[in-house]
Amino acid sequence: MTFEVGETVVYPHHGAAVIEDVSTRMLKGEEKLYLTLRVAQGDLTIQVPAENCEMVGVRDVVDQKGLKEVHEVLMEQNTEEPTNWSRRYKANVEKIATGDIVRVAEVVRDLSRRDNEKGLSAGEKRMLAKARQILISELALARETDEEEATAQLDKVLAESDPTLQAEAEEAAEKVKEAKKAK
Fold this sequence. Notes:
The protein contains 7 helices and 5 strands, in the order ββββαβαααααα. The chain is α+β, with helices and mostly antiparallel strands. The chain has 2 domains: about 10-60, Thrombin, subunit H, CATH 2.40.10.170; about 65-180, Methane Monooxygenase Hydroxylase, Chain G, domain 1 (Up-down Bundle), CATH 1.20.58.
């Protein structure tokens, strides 16, 4: 994988990040190439040795084929997940840690449905918010839109797969329309 300043990549646990700098550093007598990444959400800067990028899960933004796969995952009806809270939580942490957008979409789908049906614990609510943030930041980049629009699109797809979420999706879409009119 080659890296250029200004290129957007995806960093596991944080989502979209822009390469701000590619520099060389001396480390234990060896010159190593480092990437400086600025995460799109928040004010976080990460430095990663270029040779370790693949190992830590830094990757390109998902393509159209990947977007289709994410959509299919979000629309899946019958999914099995552990009923035990701690096992479910651990499985979801592992999925997010992979940095794979399809696995993150699974977490968003499953936790959104569980939240709607039974409610979530505080820990799972934080996890859902984090997984949504990661998914939305990448969807916005892949679809070349802003995060508000990506959020509305995600909510619409989730509502299509779970009709009880329909009202929330319509409300989110209306807010996006109003915000665009105000601009």
